[in-house]
Amino acid sequence: MTQIMADKKQGLTFEIVSARISDAADEKKHVVYTLQVRFISGNDDLSPSVVERRYTHFLNLYNALKREHPQLMATVVFPKKVLIGNFDNELISTRSTGFESLLNHISTESRLRTSKALLDFLQDAELSTAKELIGKRDYTLAYPILENNFKLLNKIFTDRSPAVLLALCRVVACLASLQDFPNSLRWADLALHRYEGVSDSDLLELYVPLLNACSKIWWNNGRNKEELDSRIEELRKKGHRVDGAPDLMGAVEVIEQRIFGGN
Predict the structure, then answer these.
(1) The dihedral sign for the CA sequence 248, 251, 257, 260
(2) Is 4's pLDDT higher than 70?
(3) What's the pTM?
(4) Which CATH superfamily is domain 3-113 in?
(5) Could you tell me which residue ranges the PX domain spans (predicted)?
(6) Which H or E run contains 51?
(7) Which residue, of 100, 102, 135, 185, has the fewest CB within 10 Å?
(8) Nearest-CA neighbor of 29 among 77, 86, 79?
(9) Where are the domains of the chain?
Protein backbone atom coordinates (compact mmCIF):
# COMPACT_ATOMS: atom_id res chain seq x y z
CA MET A 1 0.00 0.00 0.00
CA THR A 2 1.02 3.62 -0.43
CA GLN A 3 2.68 5.34 2.52
CA ILE A 4 2.20 9.05 3.07
CA MET A 5 3.84 11.66 5.23
CA ALA A 6 0.88 13.39 6.80
CA ASP A 7 2.70 16.22 8.49
CA LYS A 8 6.44 16.51 7.88
CA LYS A 9 6.93 18.93 10.75
CA GLN A 10 5.23 16.59 13.22
CA GLY A 11 6.54 13.42 11.61
CA LEU A 12 3.09 11.83 11.56
CA THR A 13 2.49 9.07 9.02
CA PHE A 14 -0.62 7.09 8.12
CA GLU A 15 -0.45 3.91 6.10
CA ILE A 16 -2.94 1.23 5.12
CA VAL A 17 -0.60 -1.72 5.51
CA SER A 18 -3.01 -4.49 4.58
CA ALA A 19 -6.60 -5.36 3.81
CA ARG A 20 -8.54 -8.56 4.33
CA ILE A 21 -12.01 -9.81 3.56
CA SER A 22 -14.09 -10.61 6.62
CA ASP A 23 -16.85 -13.14 6.18
CA ALA A 24 -17.90 -13.72 9.78
CA ALA A 25 -21.17 -15.55 10.28
CA ASP A 26 -22.74 -12.70 12.27
CA GLU A 27 -21.72 -9.94 9.83
CA LYS A 28 -22.19 -9.05 6.21
CA LYS A 29 -19.12 -9.77 4.12
CA HIS A 30 -16.84 -6.73 4.05
CA VAL A 31 -13.24 -5.54 3.69
CA VAL A 32 -11.23 -4.71 6.80
CA TYR A 33 -8.39 -2.21 6.32
CA THR A 34 -5.43 -2.23 8.72
CA LEU A 35 -4.31 1.33 9.47
CA GLN A 36 -0.84 1.90 10.90
CA VAL A 37 -0.02 5.23 12.56
CA ARG A 38 3.55 6.28 13.30
CA PHE A 39 5.16 9.39 14.72
CA ILE A 40 8.70 9.85 13.46
CA SER A 41 11.01 12.20 15.32
CA GLY A 42 14.64 11.76 14.32
CA ASN A 43 14.49 7.96 14.21
CA ASP A 44 11.74 5.75 12.88
CA ASP A 45 8.83 4.93 15.18
CA LEU A 46 9.51 1.36 16.26
CA SER A 47 6.17 1.05 18.07
CA PRO A 48 3.50 2.01 15.55
CA SER A 49 -0.15 1.93 16.54
CA VAL A 50 -2.46 -0.27 14.52
CA VAL A 51 -6.25 -0.27 14.22
CA GLU A 52 -8.67 -1.94 11.84
CA ARG A 53 -11.38 0.00 10.06
CA ARG A 54 -14.07 -0.64 7.45
CA TYR A 55 -15.06 1.53 4.50
CA THR A 56 -18.02 2.78 6.56
CA HIS A 57 -15.72 4.17 9.26
CA PHE A 58 -13.80 6.25 6.73
CA LEU A 59 -17.04 7.33 5.05
CA ASN A 60 -18.54 8.47 8.36
CA LEU A 61 -15.39 10.46 9.12
CA TYR A 62 -15.48 12.11 5.70
CA ASN A 63 -19.19 12.95 5.88
CA ALA A 64 -18.93 14.39 9.40
CA LEU A 65 -16.04 16.67 8.44
CA LYS A 66 -17.74 17.62 5.18
CA ARG A 67 -20.76 18.82 7.18
CA GLU A 68 -18.74 20.63 9.84
CA HIS A 69 -16.02 22.13 7.63
CA PRO A 70 -17.22 22.16 4.01
CA GLN A 71 -14.62 24.67 2.86
CA LEU A 72 -11.72 22.75 4.39
CA MET A 73 -12.96 19.53 2.80
CA ALA A 74 -13.79 20.97 -0.62
CA THR A 75 -10.73 19.51 -2.35
CA VAL A 76 -10.97 16.03 -0.84
CA VAL A 77 -12.07 13.30 -3.24
CA PHE A 78 -13.44 10.33 -1.34
CA PRO A 79 -13.72 6.83 -2.86
CA LYS A 80 -17.31 6.24 -3.94
CA LYS A 81 -19.48 3.29 -3.05
CA VAL A 82 -19.92 0.64 -5.73
CA LEU A 83 -22.70 -1.87 -6.22
CA ILE A 84 -20.44 -4.69 -7.35
CA GLY A 85 -16.74 -5.45 -7.18
CA ASN A 86 -16.18 -4.41 -3.56
CA PHE A 87 -13.66 -7.20 -3.12
CA ASP A 88 -11.66 -6.48 -6.27
CA ASN A 89 -7.96 -6.03 -5.46
CA GLU A 90 -7.66 -2.94 -7.64
CA LEU A 91 -10.62 -1.28 -5.93
CA ILE A 92 -9.25 -2.13 -2.49
CA SER A 93 -5.88 -0.61 -3.43
CA THR A 94 -7.53 2.52 -4.83
CA ARG A 95 -9.64 2.93 -1.72
CA SER A 96 -6.60 2.46 0.51
CA THR A 97 -4.84 5.31 -1.26
CA GLY A 98 -7.95 7.45 -0.91
CA PHE A 99 -8.20 6.73 2.82
CA GLU A 100 -4.55 7.67 3.30
CA SER A 101 -5.07 10.90 1.37
CA LEU A 102 -8.06 11.75 3.56
CA LEU A 103 -6.05 11.27 6.75
CA ASN A 104 -3.15 13.20 5.24
CA HIS A 105 -5.43 16.14 4.55
CA ILE A 106 -6.99 16.02 8.02
CA SER A 107 -3.62 15.98 9.75
CA THR A 108 -2.45 19.13 7.96
CA GLU A 109 -5.52 21.18 8.97
CA SER A 110 -5.63 21.97 12.69
CA ARG A 111 -9.42 22.32 12.85
CA LEU A 112 -9.87 18.93 11.22
CA ARG A 113 -7.14 17.31 13.27
CA THR A 114 -8.70 18.43 16.56
CA SER A 115 -12.26 17.56 15.53
CA LYS A 116 -14.49 15.21 17.47
CA ALA A 117 -15.12 13.36 14.21
CA LEU A 118 -11.46 12.34 13.98
CA LEU A 119 -11.35 11.39 17.66
CA ASP A 120 -14.43 9.22 17.22
CA PHE A 121 -12.86 7.56 14.19
CA LEU A 122 -9.66 6.83 16.08
CA GLN A 123 -11.12 5.33 19.22
CA ASP A 124 -14.86 4.62 19.27
CA ALA A 125 -14.67 1.04 18.01
CA GLU A 126 -11.99 0.02 20.51
CA LEU A 127 -13.52 1.92 23.43
CA SER A 128 -16.81 0.16 22.88
CA THR A 129 -15.06 -3.20 23.21
CA ALA A 130 -13.02 -2.08 26.22
CA LYS A 131 -16.05 -0.72 28.05
CA GLU A 132 -17.89 -3.98 27.49
CA LEU A 133 -14.96 -5.90 28.97
CA ILE A 134 -14.72 -3.52 31.93
CA GLY A 135 -18.43 -3.98 32.53
CA LYS A 136 -17.67 -7.69 32.87
CA ARG A 137 -14.71 -6.86 35.15
CA ASP A 138 -12.34 -8.39 32.60
CA TYR A 139 -9.66 -5.76 33.15
CA THR A 140 -6.83 -7.97 31.88
CA LEU A 141 -8.33 -8.05 28.38
CA ALA A 142 -9.42 -4.41 28.50
CA TYR A 143 -5.94 -3.14 29.39
CA PRO A 144 -4.12 -3.76 26.06
CA ILE A 145 -7.00 -2.14 24.16
CA LEU A 146 -6.82 0.97 26.34
CA GLU A 147 -3.02 0.98 26.14
CA ASN A 148 -3.08 0.94 22.34
CA ASN A 149 -5.74 3.66 22.34
CA PHE A 150 -3.56 5.92 24.48
CA LYS A 151 -0.45 5.32 22.39
CA LEU A 152 -2.38 6.01 19.18
CA LEU A 153 -3.85 9.29 20.43
CA ASN A 154 -0.51 10.37 21.87
CA LYS A 155 1.02 10.17 18.39
CA ILE A 156 -1.58 12.58 17.03
CA PHE A 157 -2.35 14.96 19.90
CA THR A 158 -0.14 16.73 22.45
CA ASP A 159 0.85 15.08 25.73
CA ARG A 160 -1.54 17.14 27.84
CA SER A 161 -4.43 17.43 25.42
CA PRO A 162 -7.80 16.37 26.86
CA ALA A 163 -8.09 13.33 24.59
CA VAL A 164 -4.67 12.01 25.58
CA LEU A 165 -5.07 12.66 29.31
CA LEU A 166 -8.49 11.01 29.37
CA ALA A 167 -7.08 7.99 27.54
CA LEU A 168 -4.18 7.83 30.01
CA CYS A 169 -6.56 8.01 32.97
CA ARG A 170 -8.54 5.12 31.50
CA VAL A 171 -5.39 3.00 31.46
CA VAL A 172 -4.61 3.89 35.08
CA ALA A 173 -8.20 3.24 36.18
CA CYS A 174 -8.08 -0.19 34.57
CA LEU A 175 -4.74 -1.05 36.17
CA ALA A 176 -5.98 0.05 39.60
CA SER A 177 -8.35 -2.91 39.44
CA LEU A 178 -5.52 -5.38 38.77
CA GLN A 179 -3.29 -6.74 41.52
CA ASP A 180 0.48 -6.43 41.00
CA PHE A 181 0.18 -5.99 37.21
CA PRO A 182 3.42 -5.44 35.21
CA ASN A 183 4.15 -1.80 34.33
CA SER A 184 1.27 -0.46 36.43
CA LEU A 185 3.64 1.71 38.49
CA ARG A 186 5.11 3.17 35.30
CA TRP A 187 1.65 4.11 34.05
CA ALA A 188 0.69 5.66 37.39
CA ASP A 189 3.89 7.71 37.47
CA LEU A 190 3.37 8.85 33.88
CA ALA A 191 -0.16 10.03 34.65
CA LEU A 192 0.95 11.92 37.75
CA HIS A 193 3.74 13.57 35.77
CA ARG A 194 1.44 14.54 32.91
CA TYR A 195 -0.97 16.19 35.35
CA GLU A 196 1.73 18.55 36.60
CA GLY A 197 0.95 21.91 35.04
CA VAL A 198 -2.56 21.03 33.85
CA SER A 199 -4.79 24.08 34.20
CA ASP A 200 -7.96 23.00 32.39
CA SER A 201 -10.73 23.16 35.01
CA ASP A 202 -12.54 20.12 33.63
CA LEU A 203 -9.41 17.98 33.62
CA LEU A 204 -8.48 19.12 37.12
CA GLU A 205 -11.67 17.45 38.36
CA LEU A 206 -9.94 14.17 37.58
CA TYR A 207 -7.00 14.88 39.86
CA VAL A 208 -8.43 13.51 43.12
CA PRO A 209 -9.82 10.36 41.44
CA LEU A 210 -6.42 9.97 39.73
CA LEU A 211 -4.56 10.30 43.03
CA ASN A 212 -6.85 7.69 44.58
CA ALA A 213 -6.28 5.27 41.70
CA CYS A 214 -2.51 5.81 41.76
CA SER A 215 -2.49 5.36 45.53
CA LYS A 216 -4.18 2.00 45.06
CA ILE A 217 -1.65 1.00 42.39
CA TRP A 218 1.26 2.01 44.63
CA TRP A 219 -0.23 -0.01 47.50
CA ASN A 220 -0.90 -3.04 45.28
CA ASN A 221 2.72 -2.99 44.13
CA GLY A 222 4.30 -2.53 47.54
CA ARG A 223 5.25 1.15 47.20
CA ASN A 224 4.71 3.48 50.15
CA LYS A 225 1.70 5.62 49.29
CA GLU A 226 2.11 8.23 52.02
CA GLU A 227 3.20 10.84 49.47
CA LEU A 228 -0.05 10.53 47.56
CA ASP A 229 -2.12 10.41 50.73
CA SER A 230 -0.46 13.68 51.77
CA ARG A 231 -1.38 15.29 48.45
CA ILE A 232 -4.98 14.22 48.90
CA GLU A 233 -5.04 15.62 52.44
CA GLU A 234 -3.64 18.95 51.19
CA LEU A 235 -6.42 19.15 48.63
CA ARG A 236 -8.97 18.44 51.35
CA LYS A 237 -7.64 21.35 53.41
CA LYS A 238 -7.92 23.61 50.36
CA GLY A 239 -11.61 22.77 50.06
CA HIS A 240 -11.49 20.24 47.25
CA ARG A 241 -13.97 17.41 47.27
CA VAL A 242 -12.08 14.39 48.55
CA ASP A 243 -14.56 12.31 50.50
CA GLY A 244 -17.03 10.66 48.18
CA ALA A 245 -15.02 11.54 45.08
CA PRO A 246 -16.03 9.41 42.07
CA ASP A 247 -13.84 6.55 40.90
CA LEU A 248 -11.46 7.43 38.09
CA MET A 249 -13.18 5.47 35.32
CA GLY A 250 -16.54 7.03 36.14
CA ALA A 251 -15.01 10.50 36.35
CA VAL A 252 -13.41 10.07 32.93
CA GLU A 253 -16.79 9.26 31.39
CA VAL A 254 -18.37 12.38 32.91
CA ILE A 255 -15.56 14.73 31.89
CA GLU A 256 -15.31 13.26 28.39
CA GLN A 257 -19.03 13.79 27.86
CA ARG A 258 -18.70 17.38 29.05
CA ILE A 259 -15.71 18.20 26.83
CA PHE A 260 -16.55 16.31 23.66
CA GLY A 261 -20.26 15.60 23.98
CA GLY A 262 -22.06 12.46 22.90
CA ASN A 263 -22.50 10.92 19.50
Answers:
(1) negative
(2) no
(3) 0.89
(4) Phox-like domain (3.30.1520.10)
(5) 11-129
(6) strand 49-54
(7) 135
(8) 86
(9) 3-113, 119-260
